[in-house]
Amino acid sequence: MNTEVETYIDWHDYYELTKPRVVMLIVFTAIVGMFLSVPGWPGAMPLVFGTLGIGLAASSAAVYNHVLDARIDIQMMRTRGRPLPQGKLTEQSALTFATVLCIVSMLILWFLVNPLTAVLTFFSLIGYAVIYTVWLKRATPQNIVIGGAAGAAPPILGWTAVTNEVHSGALLLFLIVFVWTPPHFWALAIARKEEYAKVEIPMLPVTHGESYTRLQILLYTILLLLVTILPYLIGMSGIIYLLAAVILGGAFLNYAIRMRLQPDDRELPMKMFKFSISYLGLLFAALLIDHYLLFQLSI
């Protein structure tokens, strides 16, 4: 009985290393990219194995991130409960786990999907796990802007998994996630400003102050609202998506304006951060629903 309990706890800790909630959102944007790449059904092979391969790669990047950030995670309230800072797993076992996930994901994507998706996914993994975590995160307050390219790649990966090409529609989905990332993460950075300062991570609120960061959040949110209208303007989506984009964007903009005008509300940054996660999921769900309603009407 004790062995069974210990095994469960071990696997649960490995599961937590993969940042499952973040990976779920990443994979969902990739799936939407798959479905938007074609008028009808994208096909079982790219859908199943593309989703599996991209999901495993995202999980691998998350585990590498845990290993590389273990020494600062233990100093931050938000992250000190993670398996590595708590000593539930060793760095060696986590590295082995991440490497296995990486290899399996690349094999699946290369042989069961297509080499282009495998290559792009690998570069996305390296971009997040190495370039962002090891260098950008500690080098510049624009870390999340530059590094956001890796996190915005999944819609492109999903699209190429089906079509084996990088299409302008995929790049537009990439742009939406890319512009969404700074206001999403800077809201968290304001909420955890003291913790980032403590571990000497140059997040924008630490280096330039909260007032400047709140202004940047507002400007990026305005840009995001404009960018999310582009799928409708170029005929990629219809009125259902447009209504969703405007309503969701208006709610996001309301948070950004309040962040700018109510700096004394210390709970608002975390509320905006949490809303931003729901925002992206709902926005991509609207893209998917709209796409298939348009397809059904055209039949």
Number of helices: 14
Estimate the strand proportion.
under 5%
Element order: H for helix, E for strand: HHHHHHHHHHHHHH
Low-confidence stretches: 1-9
Keywords:
mainly alpha; 299 residues; disordered N terminus; 0% strand
Topology record:
Layout: H1 2-17, H2 20-36, H3 44-68, H4 70-73, H5 91-113, H6 115-139, H7 143-151, H8 154-163, H9 168-191, H10 193-198, H11 204-208, H12 210-233, H13 239-261, H14 268-298
Description:
- The chain has 299 residues and is an all-alpha fold.
- It is built from 14 helices and no strands.
- It has helices at 2-17, 20-36, 44-68, 70-73, 91-113, 115-139, 143-151, 154-163, 168-191, 193-198, 204-208, 210-233, 239-261, 268-298.
- Helix 3 (44-68) packs antiparallel against helix 5.
Short description:
Helices cover 81% and strands 0% of the residues. It contains 14 helices and no strands.
